[in-house]
Amino acid sequence: MQNAVTELMRISPLADELAKLFAKAGYSLYLVGGSVRDMMLRRLSNDLDFTTDARPDQVLKIVSAWGDAVWDVGIAFGTVGVTKQGMTLEITTFRADSYDRVGRNPEVTFGDSIEGDLLRRDFTVNAMAIDLAHKTFVDPHNGLQALQDKVLDTPATPQESFADDPLRMLRAARFSAQLGFTAAPRVVDAMSSMAEEIDRITAERVQAELSKLLLADDPRPGIELLVDTRLADRVLPEVPGMRLAMDEHHQHKDVYQHSLTVLAQAIDLEKSHEPTSEPDLILRLAALLHDVGKPATREFQPGGGVSFHHHEVVGAKMARKRLRALKFSKEIVQDVSQLVFLHLRFHGYGKGEWTDSAVRRYVTDAGDLLPRLHKLVRADCTTRNRKKAAALQATYDDLERRIEAIQAQEDLDKVRPDLNGEEIMRILDLKPGPDVGKAWKHLKELRLDRGPLEHDEAVAELKKWAAENGIGG
Fold first, then answer.
1. Residues of the chain by 3-state class (helix, strand, coil), percent to 5
2. In what residue span(s) does the HD domain sit (predicted)?
3. pLDDT per position in the chain (473 positions), as tens?
């Protein structure tokens, strides 16, 4: 409560001013939901949620002259937005919605009491309010106790709550990750028995919740809740599917547990390398999904060994298919699948046997993903054998040093053939067409194999290749 008082004092002038406007018009105003929860946790942002008994048109009338900017795009659902002094406020009329339990869109019905409004909210920690006119705390569902105990429970029964809006099951997993809370046993039971209800939710909304979960400081509890309740079977089946395969390096771990560890280690590297940057969704997705191809490629070897040949190729295809189904952007789909495809290539480096040509190809194939690939490959080392782990990290240190040395000499980020398209057409007397592209690609392969060529040498190689392939005059 002391946290709430401290945070409330920070926004008090603004909240008091707004509450007085509503009181003058004959209405109440409450700070509500996630804003109250975050206030208690001392993590209140500049985005605040309010609720009121005033109807949307009346809210609009009250704030229009007061706010720095006002918008009404959510007015059909009872919400009016307003900015003031750098704060973003959303004011929603009490809701008493009913659901058809086919989709998740409610039949919007406005309510008459704060108690009725709080009853329809997803979790008790989000069902608290502060009466701003009287500075009183409203907590009919013991949300404060749940907050103290770090427990996620529902105001109504979880069966009622999830039947109304199945997305709340994914929100339970997301809050487990974001807040470090544990779902109450009855919530877990309802999630398990009602997992198929998530099929009512659009892929876009599922993706948004999964993304928020993965961007949390510690996504693991949320992922484990999804897997344990079988919700992951419906929205991300490749992840629980990894429990079938034993990791070839760690017979005491399955690939699922290994992947969760890789995700945690990737997040640690993300923070240590670039502590001021935002959480990296592409890296985290790649870390979680990098071994999804193992179950499909598992082969048992004589003597008890296990192999997963080409699991990176299969995994890249699986990751691409799943991310597309979840409506991720083309950029995210491409980048994650490419990282999955490339994550195993480093293991061919051995003790530094790669030629400079192989190093160039590694950098060129990674392109802009190289910093992420560095983190993913390092995170993929989960052996408990300290000597082996140190040797792997030292080997990758060596590869990074070689990359830096070659980049300093050749600017690998801008690898291009030593002759451009116009020069190729002039030298071979070609018009624009497929043969020019083939010649360009051949010269790029030479550039990767041998490094920069002198101009005369590049011309000679081009003419030699053209003669061998019957191209040009």
1. 60, 10, 30
2. 255-406
3. 656 656 666 677 888 899 999 999 999 999 999 999 998 888 888 889 999 999 999 999 999 999 999 999 889 889 999 999 999 999 999 988 666 666 666 677 898 999 999 999 999 999 999 999 888 889 999 999 999 999 999 999 999 999 999 999 999 999 999 999 999 999 999 999 999 999 999 999 999 999 999 999 999 999 999 999 999 999 999 999 998 655 455 444 589 999 999 999 999 999 886 666 789 999 999 999 999 999 887 877 776 676 677 898 999 999 999 999 999 999 999 999 999 999 988 887 777 778 888 888 888 889 899 999 999 999 998 888 888 888 888 988 999 999 888 877 766 555 667 678 888 888 888 888 888 888 888 887 887 777 778 888 888 888 888 888 888 75
The structure's pTM equals 0.81
- Say how far apart CA 111 and CA 212 lie, in whole Å: 30
Q: Are strands 151-152 and 182-183 parallel, antiparallel or unpaired?
A: parallel
Give the integer Cα–Cα distance in Å for 238 and 261. 16
Side-chain-side CA neighbours of residue 326 (13 Å): 22
Amino acid at 20: K
Runs of H (alpha helix) within 121-182: 143-149, 158-164, 167-179
Q: Which domains does the chain have, with CATH numbers?
A: 1-149 (3.30.460.10), 152-244 (1.10.110.30), 277-413 (no CATH), 421-469 (no CATH)
Got the DSSP string for 256-304?
HHHHHHHHHHHHHHHHHHSTTSPP-HHHHHHHHHTTTTHHHH-EEPTTS
